[in-house]
Amino acid sequence: MRGPARIAPGALTDTSRPVGFRFDGRPLEGLAGDTLASALLANGRQLIGRSFKYHRPRGIVTAGPEEPCALVDVIGPRGREPNRLATTLMLHDGLIAESQNRWPSLRFDVGALSDRLGRFLPAGFYYKTFMAPGWAWERLYEPLIRRAAGLGRLTPIVPAHADPAETVHDHADVLIIGSGAAGLAAAHRLGECGLRVILAEQDVVLGGGVLLDARWSPWRTAVCAGLAAQPTVRTLPRATVLGAYGQGVFGALEELGPLEAARHGGLRERLRIIRARRVLFATGALERHIAFPGNDVPGVMLAGAALRYLRRYGVAAGRRPAFFLNTDEAYDAVFALVAAGVDCAGVIDVRGSSLAAQRARELGIEVVAGAVIARVRGRTGVRGVHAVDVDGHRLRRLTADCLLISGGYSPATALPAQLGARLTWQEAIAAFVPDLAPSSGQVAGAARGVFGLAAAARDGDAVARAIAAQLDAAPDSGSPVSSQLALPELPADPQATPLRALWQVRAAGKAFVDLQNDVTADDVRLSAREGYEHVEHMKRFTTHGMAGDQGRIGGLLGSAVLAEARGVELAAVGVARPRPFTQPLPFAALAGGEVREHYKPRRRLPLHEWHAQAGATFVPTGLWLRPLVYAANSGWEAVLREARAVRSHVGITDVSTLGKIDVQGPDAARFLDFIYANTFSTLAVGRTRYGIMLREDGMMFDDGTTARLAADHFLVTTTTVNAVAVLEHLEFHLQSTCAPLDVLLTDVADQWAQFAVAGPRAREVLAKLAAGIDLSNQAFPFMAAAAATIAGVAGRLFRISFSGELAFELAVPASAARSVWSAVLEAGAPFGIQPYGLDALNTLRIEKGHVTGAELNGNTSADDLGMQRLLKCEGDFIGRTLAQRPGLTHEGRLQLIGVRPIDRGQRLRNGMQLVSSGAPQASLGYVTSSTPSVELEGWVGLALLAGGRRRIGERLLATSPLHEATTEIEIVSPHMLDPENRRVRS
Amino acid sequence: MLRIPCPWCGERDEIEFRYRGDATKVRPDPQAGIAAFSLYVYERGNPCGWHVEWWLHVGGCRSLLKVLRHTLTHEISWVGGPQDQPPLPPSADG
């Protein structure tokens, strides 16, 4: 049977398939179908780990994702993965797991000393104690505390491509969350109506609580067969819905089983984003813990969990369990374990009498009625319990090796609460039930306090009918499927005596309300005394409910203790608001496939392959990859060689990444007059003009050249990084502020490849290629634009220059980029044409004083950049009014100037601060761009300097404390090269 | 995550759209002066309740939409074109 505690065949385990695994180095054996927790229990292991703060020994408390204690490290291909729940971790051959937060060993842990000191370590202790001196927190206290506290250890480096995850988008008419009695009945009904249903279940099998009652087996089998036969129903086991985001959007984490994982190349998790027209929460209820001293000793487990271990895995939680209960439902575990032959130490029932207690006595089980547990004997395992009456008088001592408890059941309300459900107190079950706006979703079954399997199934069916009616769907009685769908009669729910609410037992010792974060009932009382009376304040003061389990089994206990301390009703205290995610998930699952080179799209130039073959080093610019320099290393030598070629003869560079917007329509000129700070209606056809755009607040937004190709046809170019933002800006204004102008905008950035051919020999190169065009200064002057056939390809030719040299930009359809580029290289070969990259382009434009993103940084006005004269005086444009604010034209603002080191051998750096030698602490400005110069001696830079234009000719210091570099510089005009613009007009 | 029913494309995820702010703001007359433009650019209400706002469908038809959205529940009760007037909110207190 694999393990001494395996006493019966389990519903999920396969006794013919043993599985070997290791826990804390010891080889153990379990069965296929086991979780790590069930396999450890089968081997008689109850001690699993040490607790977060006090290092107390801890065991397995639950059998599901609500588990607070049984956290382990798993060592696998992803490295060391901390905080995996033993209760949901499926056992597989070769699994290696280790206990957490203990040193040197699980049984003997030095850190447990903090438990002895526990009364000196209440909530808030660290905040209050480790305050002074200020330096000590970072260097001394925090490292010490961090080493002692916390759970698990992370592997710092995750191997590349280990266990990939993926993201999947799903759509449905109805999403049903939970496949217990209510969820199954609802899915069946909605499927019958022909609706597209997704049934998400966190468990590995469908059924929820139905799985624990053998009488329900025929009904479950029939429903599952029906669901399988309904083509519109999809069942998703192992899929946990983690967040409800409104408007029918949900996030779910699906963990793939080993078979499916193998089919998908080791894929382990799938993040599902589900969009549904309607949602039904059938999330069931969770059994509650009780706060009494020793309620965390390994071997203390929820009664419902013990029932699950028996039914699903055939494992007994102990050889001689005692019980501590307050409902009839919890007796199911008593009867099941006794029927399986387990020796029951006795039942301690809070209530005076009950139907279930009566039945237990008939079976010869001892029931201590009207009693509570005041003490648990044992430290690393339960040895016995002391029962007392409500006044604290000793009633009975029981010898037991485990204690199975139940404090009643709370509806699982986290997801409806994320959608804004109000929680209303229901006295009959002593729990909050969600009250959700019908437009947000429906709740059915135990999730809204309808307990009992048959009652829940009927409720699920009724709610499903209402949803179907809302969606105008009805059962399709004629379909061949529906005849198979007749379901067996529902077994009747047993008669039950109501529960008696019990939250805590006041006795000496630590009584935990949050097992994962080690929060005790005393901590909650301290919180109330210190004035943190609101449940949200108490949560943050004590960290109650802030651990990975989100306080699902103990959340209400904390509220109840707080209510008592404040002397108010529990209903008035409420519970802390849950937020996504309902349980921890790996970042890898959130990232899905969007990692490393897939983190964001990469846009490649039409000539990318050519650039790569030419040995280019690429640099990301926005989403684009642009050639930085045609060399492997990033030294200045190659950059300067490229730039020098442009200055001395001719170069060619790929500027296809520029944004290009085609603007057409009778009102196109009027529209551009409004968008740009300068005028375009006066631009002649066949001419190009440099333009600047402001934001409405008067600051510079973007710049570029715009050509008028026809009276009603313009081509706007934008900077590479602003291409998308400018198009949005234009669309927004065209459709709102400028409506009803008759203009159409078309993004043609990808359609046109564009190259700049620059240098004194540029005209001679292009003359060989541009057939039938006179490129002379008279016929095609600076800023001319024309349609042209270039190397046999129909394109466009512009005489514009960013480099400061005689230059042409030619645009051809992207598909012809390679042939035209090659033709230019061939034509330019006799002139020594040199391809140049972004670095050389930058060198050239800095010398010339042209601005890019470093200067158009969102904080600069047109005046700051010396472009005040471009602002038109007549007519409105975006940013006109606010650009006139005195603060934006103040003479003391940071203004664009050029800088050069006095000692020409010294270098400049971007970001160097400009200071005066008299007051080196006060920044007067900073260097925005810098480069070694081709034409001038040494380095040149552009800088923004307070009142800079007035200071031309002065000397300052440029300093970079990071590099321990300080250089004396002179302030010069930003137009350091050819300020008369002779070259571009040559 | 919002699901915005674009009148041209159908219901789409929020990520296809770019938020462009308060749609009740009207650009002042060009001569209105700095104070009026400052209000237009900088002053925004922060209503708890229904809010008319611009959403530009950049990942779809590129149409500019006027959306009536509840800032607390994210419910969208109406979507129209830039020149359409939104109906009165479903209820005054939202």
Describe this structure in words.
The complex is a heterodimer of chains A (986) and B (94). Chain A is 23% helix and 27% strand. Chain A has 986 residues and is an alpha+beta fold. In chain A, the strands form 12 sheets. In chain A, strands 8, 9, 10, 11, 12, 13 and 26 form a 7-stranded mixed beta sheet that branches. In chain A, strands 39-40-41-42-38-32-43 form a 7-stranded mixed beta sheet. In chain A, helix 8 packs parallel to helix 9 (331-339) and helix 13 packs across helix 15 (555-566). Chain A starts with 13 loop residues before the first strand and ends in a 14-residue tail after the last strand. Mean pLDDT of chain A is 92; it is low at 480-484. Helix content of chain B is 10%, strand content 34%. The two termini of chain B are 20 Å apart. The chains are: A alpha+beta (986), B mainly beta (94). Chain A binds chain B through residues 245-249, 275, 420, 437, 439-440, 696-697, 724, 728, 731-732, 735-737, 739, 876, 880-882, 884-885, and chain B through 1-3, 13, 18, 20, 27, 30, 32-34, 36-38, 40-42, 54, 56, 58, 62-64, 73-76, 82-83.
Helical coverage of chain B, percent range: under 10%
Number of strands of chain B: 6
Number of helices of chain A: 26
Count of separate DSSP helical elements of chain B: 1
Across the major sheet of chain B, the strand order is 3-4-5-6
Structure at a glance:
The complex is a heterodimer of chains A (986) and B (94). Chain A is of the alpha+beta class.
Ordered list of secondary-structure elements with their pairings:
The complex is a heterodimer of chains A (986) and B (94).
Chain A: E1 14-23, E2 26-32, H1 36-42, E3 49-50, E4 57-58, E5 71-76, E6 79-85, E7 95-98, H2 113-116, H3 125-129, H4 134-148, E8 165-177, H5 181-192, E9 197-200, H6 217-229, E10 233-236, E11 239-244, E12 249-255, H7 258-263, E13 269-281, E14 285-287, E15 300-302, H8 303-313, E16 321-325, H9 331-339, E17 346-349, H10 355-362, E18 367-369, E19 371-377, E20 384-389, E21 394-399, E22 402-405, E23 409-411, H11 414-418, E24 422-426, E25 431-435, E26 442-443, H12 453-470, E27 512-514, E28 519-520, H13 521-529, H14 535-542, H15 555-566, H16 570-573, H17 587-591, E29 603-604, H18 608-613, E30 617-621, E31 624-629, H19 636-648, E32 651-654, E33 659-664, H20 668-675, E34 688-694, E35 700-710, E36 713-718, H21 723-735, E37 744-747, E38 752-758, H22 762-767, E39 770-771, E40 785-790, E41 793-798, E42 807-813, H23 817-828, E43 834-835, H24 838-848, H25 880-883, H26 886-889, E44 894-901, E45 913-915, E46 925-932, E47 939-946, E48 955-960, E49 965-972
Helix pairs in contact in A: 5-6, 5-12, 8-9, 13-14, 13-15, 19-24
Chain B: E1 3-6, E2 10-13, E3 18-22, H1 34-42, E4 50-56, E5 64-70, E6 76-80
Antiparallel strand pairs in B: 1-2, 3-4, 4-5, 5-6
